[in-house]
Predict the 3D structure of the following.
Amino acid sequence: MKTLKIILGVFLISALSASVGFGKTYKTGTGGPTGNYFGMTNDIISYCVEEDAADTIEAINTNGSLENCTGLTNKKFSMAIVQEDVLQFMSKKMPNKVNQNRIKVISGLHLETAHLLVPFGYQPENQSKGFWAGLKSKFSDEKPITLSMSILKGQKVVSTGGSVVSLKALNYFLNLGMKVVEMKSMDEVLKVRKYPVFLVGGQPYAPVEKLLDTNAFTLVSIDYDKIKAQAPFYLKSTANYKVKGKIKSVSTFAVRALIVGKSFRRASKNKFMSELSQCITESLPDLADDSDTNANWETVFELENDGAQSGWSYFPLPEK
C-alpha cells in the first residue's frame, strides 16, 4: 500500500507539473520601489508575461546598476537593468564575469542625463584663477559655461548614490585622475559646497533641482565631443532646468539604461530572453501610448525608432 501511495504521489506531481507548467522565475534586479527601473520592469511583466505562463519575471528592489550588475555575476539575478557605463566599467574590472558572451542586452531603455554642478567661487587646486574668476552667478545664469571634463583632472568631485559608480566609470574611461568624494546622502552634499558635484539621473532630477535652489551652484555645459572618442557609449544630450524663474539649457551627455540577461552557450537556454526581447520591441508603441505605464517608454520608443543601438551585444531574436 505504501508503494502504491508513493507511485500515485509521483504521478500526481507529474500531472500537476504538466498542467501548471512549473517553469522558471527570472529574478530581475531593478531599483527602488518608486523608481523608473522597478516601474518599467513591471510594465514589461504586464505586457510580455501571461498570467498563466510557465516562465515568469519577478522585479526585485535594489540600490541600482552596480548591485544589479554584481547580482548577475553571483547568480542572484537572471536579468537586471544596468546603465551602460556601469556595464562597460565592470567589464574592465571583472572581465571574466562581465563580458559580451556572458551578459547580453534584451532591450535598450531610456537615457540617464549627466549633470555637472560647480559651486560659485570654486577654485581648482593647482590651477590659475583666470577662468574660474569669471564664474559669477549672473554671468553663468545667462550664458552657460561649457567645460571640457579635462579641466577637472586631478580635482575632488562629489557624488552620491548610484551616481558614484558613474563618476568612477567616467574617471576611468577619460583617465582624469579625479578624487571621487562619495557622500552618503544629498543632505551631506548640500552641506559641502566647496567642490563640483556630478549626478546622473532622468531629468528633471530632484537632487539637481535641490542644488540649484541653493543658489550656490551653477549647472555647466559639458563638451561632449571631447568625451565620445574615448567613451562612445555616452550619448549627446541637453539638460533643461528652471533657474531663478528662467529655463536654463546646457549641453551635456547621457548614458542609456539597458535591460540585460545572463547568456548561455546553449541557444535553448536563451530562448526566454530572445522572446522577451522580441515582445518588448513589438510592444513599444503601446508601452509608449499607455497612460498606465512609465513615462520613459515614450523616449525608448523614439530612440529605437531612430535606430539607436547599444555597443554591447544583444540576444538574437527568435527564428521564425
User: Anything to note?
Assistant: The first helix runs from residue 2 to 20. DSSP finds eleven helices and twelve strands in the chain. The radius of gyration is 23 Å. The longest strand covers residues 103-119.
